[in-house]
Structure formats: structure tokens, C-alpha cells
Inverse folding.
């Protein structure tokens, strides 16, 4: 299997965490988001993903786009260790936590949106920064509220093993960290994040992403 | 089962279309997004969904949030008629099409984002309008490109029966229509949309949403 990714981007990192937890090795192909205005916009990459976004998993003849669809695919391919709980209620809760970040959290913060705020709408950096802090704070606060409320959280977002929810949460917290958004006010979120970081499989992927991301990414 | 919804909003409409296709009746509870600054922000609704967003499905003791998690739940509860194909490749493609809209398309366009652009960032209406047209156009163009490219589309987004992808696509097209974003340039998208609209189950839900939405919603 081949995974097209950028090492520091949010959505590809979800897939890398899922692969690490499941112990699946893939060939990683880096797509540079900066070089020549972004290799993801090239026609060569467009032939793989007409949406021109990362990540993409290529498994033989199957081309799988969208991080959550990739992880559901991996879950079907190699069910153990499971990233979705065996019970319907648990599975549903984990999917809804993951979607809170994947739909309402991260897409408002990703590179193409930040570029459009700056270059498309001509927003000054301070306004773009306000946007980022607002939606990142909102995303963490909402996740915190759900974890705190329904009594199904354990050491991780759901129970005592890492799930699809955690592989979405970890990159979101890392992104907050990278952009200097405070995370200390979100006790449940940080408890789940730290539980993830205590797992060597997750730690090594995160350490590699952090090492590559030594220069703080500019908001533009 | 109870479904908390707003009749014209995008994400709740996905669930209503899924329910209609599966022939599942629910009690609908309307949450007014305008009254008193929005009933979704009330503490009463916050007890049901700490994220203060629609839709929410309540099935006995199970509270299910996030439209795609709700539809996966319904799919497990009542597998026929199926909204996910029986084969892994098809299921994966349908999930990725649905996520293209649910993650990268609609969240950039929804009410809370439009309100934040106007009230949080103080963007003039013309700028907010540009934002909307840009991301709606992008969303339809990307969906079109995937449908056109990979040869797995049929009458619908995937094959010759409606799926999870279509129940996400239909509300997106309706939203484009409501905001006056042209859709005629997206031949594959509109072919799938029209195939959906030819189904009485979908038609009746859409007609009801359109009738309630007689006054075009302002961008603010």
C-alpha cells in the first residue's frame, strides 16, 4: 500500500496514527504543499485525487480518499486491534467524536482555508489569526464538553483503548500546539491526548511529525 | 426515535433523506435557529448536544450526534434498503464521497460560519458572499471531478441506487440553489441529483424543505 501524505498535515496524520496502531506498514509518498504553489495541485496528483487533497491511500487497484474513509477501510481490512468499539453504541459515539473534529473542527483551519482567507479575501494576518483561534478553541471546547458529559470516556476519548476518535483528536491538539492556541483549559481532551502520547506507536509518529515541523508554520 | 432538526438545514436534511429511503418514521422536533439568537444555543438543548448543533437522533437511551454517525447507526439498525454498498471498494468510495461534502464542503458554508464571518470578523456582505460562492463552487467541482473520473458512478453518485453519498449531495445542491450559486456546469452532479429527485421518497422530503424555505435565506 502507498500513502500520499504531507508529514505535518492534520488529516494524513490521522491515517498514519491508525496505521501505526494497527501495525500496518505502507510506502509513504510525500506531497510538498509549498513547492511550486503546492504539488497537490499538479495534474499528476490530480489523476490520483481529483480533489487535490491529502491523504490518499492506494491499495492495488483501490484508490481511497478522505482520511476517515481510509481508516474505515483499514478497519475492515485488518479489524484487530480495533479502532471502532464492538458495540453499536460505542461505535456510534466514536464515529460522532471523530466527525466533530473531521467535519466541524479541522476543515475550517486547514491550509487551503487559511490561504483563501489571506489571498482570496485579503484578510490581514490579525483577522486570519482570530479566525484560527476562534474555531480551534470552539473545536476543543466542544470535544471537551462531550467527553465531560456522557460518562462513556475512560482513559482515552472512549473507554480504555485508543479509537478512531483519538486518531482525530491527537492531530487537532498538535495543530493547536503548533499555532500557539492554549490547550490547558481542556482537561478531558488533554487527558485523552496524554493517554495517546503514552503509547509508543503514537509517540513515535508524533515525534517524527514534530521534528519535521521545527519552524512554526505561518498562518499564511 | 426522536430527531432534533431544523427543516431547512443541510446536515439534518441528510438524516431525513436517509430515514425516508429506509422507511423509518421518527418524531421530529424542530429547533429554531433564529428565535432568541438560536434555540440550539439554549442550555436545554446543550444537555442533549453539548456541541449545540443539529441534527441529533435520540433512540431510547442512545443520543446520536453528527449526521454521518446517525446514518451509519441507522444503517446498522435497519440494513435494508442499504445506503452503503455490499462490497468494500464501493462502501469505501461512497463514504469518501459523503465525507468530501460533509468535511470539506458544507462546514465552510453553514450558518455558524456565515455568522462568524459577518459578526465575528465584521466582513462586509460582498466578502461573505464571495466566500460562500468560492467554497460552494469548489465543493461541487470536486465532487464532479471524482464522479467523472473513476468510472464507478451510475445513475446515482455510486451505481444505480441511492447511497449515503447522495443523501449528502442532495442538500448541498439545494443549498447552492437557495443561495443562487449556478449548478448547470456540473453535469455528473446534476445527473445524480435528478436521479434522486425522481424518487418519491426523496422528492417529498425536498418539496417540504423547499416549501418551508420560501424566503431566500440572507447570507447573514
Amino acid at each position: 500500500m502507498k500513502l500520499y501524505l504531507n508529514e505535518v498535515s492534520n488529516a494524513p496524520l490521522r491515517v498514519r496514527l491508525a496505521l501505526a496502531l494497527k501495525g500496518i506498514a505502507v510506502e509513504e509518498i510525500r506531497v510538498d504543499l509549498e513547492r511550486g504553489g503546492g504539488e497537490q495541485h499538479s495534474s499528476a496528483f490530480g489523476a490520483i485525487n481529483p480533489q487535490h487533497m491529502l491523504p490518499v491511500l492506494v491499495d492495488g487497484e483501490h484508490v481511497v480518499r478522505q482520511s476517515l474513509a481510509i481508516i474505515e477501510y483499514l478497519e475492515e481490512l485488518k479489524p484487530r486491534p480495533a479502532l471502532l468499539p464492538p458495540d453499536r453504541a460505542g461505535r456510534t459515539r466514536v464515529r460522532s467524536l471523530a466527525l466533530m473534529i473531521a467535519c466541524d473542527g479541522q476543515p475550517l483551519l486547514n491550509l487551503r482555508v487559511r490561504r483563501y482567507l489571506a489571498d482570496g479575501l485579503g484578510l490581514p494576518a490579525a483577522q486570519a489569526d482570530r479566525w484560527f483561534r476562534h474555531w480551534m478553541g470552539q473545536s476543543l471546547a466542544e470535544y471537551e464538553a462531550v467527553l465531560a458529559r456522557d460518562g462513556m470516556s475512560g482513559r482515552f476519548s472512549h473507554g480504555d483503548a485508543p479509537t478512531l476518535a483519538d486518531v482525530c483528536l491527537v492531530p487537532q491538539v498538535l495543530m493547536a500546539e503548533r499555532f500557539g492556541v492554549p490547550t490547558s483549559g481542556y482537561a478531558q481532551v488533554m487527558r485523552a491526548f496524554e493517554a495517546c502520547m503514552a503509547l509508543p506507536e503514537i509517540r513515535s509518529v508524533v515525534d517524527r511529525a514534530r521534528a519535521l515541523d521545527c519552524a512554526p508554520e505561518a498562518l499564511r
Q: What stands out?
A: Chain B has nine helices and four strands. Chain B touches chain A through 47 residues (CB under 8 Å). The longest strand of chain B covers residues 2-5. Confidence is low (pLDDT under 50) at residues 215-220 of chain B.
